[in-house]
Amino acid sequence: MQEYWIRWESWMKQYAPGLLTILQPGASFEAVASLEKLINATLPASFKAFYAVHNGQVKARTGLVDADQLLSVADIITQWHHWKDLLDSETFTYNEEPIFSAPDTGIKNDWWNPLWIPITSDGFGNHLCIDLDPTPEGQPGQIITLWHDDAHRAIVAPSFEDWVKDYLNALEKGDYIFVKKWGIVHKDTFLNYND
């Protein structure tokens, strides 16, 4: 997984060298183990190898993933607790019935599932998640969308490594650009302006 960071950092050096300063040092074995203990599940080996190089990014206005922050392990834990508190307080129920999502095939129809592990954040309650509890049609470790106010749940990639690889391929192809106010954004997004 280190090769992916080499490619990503090489892109940053060329197009957005300031982003290199928001990369965190690698996550410790203990930090990742504490996350796995919290969720009572094993994270994909590719995630652990990727985070051993850089533990996501520091909290900043600019994001590394289409304007979203790549969460550190500590921030993943914080977001997970936020969603778990909402689940435990029955926020995702109405008249004592569960509120269901509208997922792609392969994703459970929960509004949120404790085995959906947030890895990015837009700061408004929306994430990409590692799905460790798919339906039989899905793949453990697939990357899915989680919206706080929209029922749709989509599969973005079949695995964490595929997600990283696809994102970096698109980055190097020129599908994403750096915008000072937001960070790395898709070239066709409404965020693609400089003011």
UniProtKB/TrEMBL annotation:
Signal peptide: none
Domain Knr4/Smi1-like: 26-166
Source taxon at top rank: Bacteria
Pfam families: SMI1_KNR4
Designated name of the protein: Molybdenum cofactor biosynthesis protein MoeA
Species name: Chitinophaga silvatica
SMART domains for this protein: SMI1_KNR4 (SM00860)
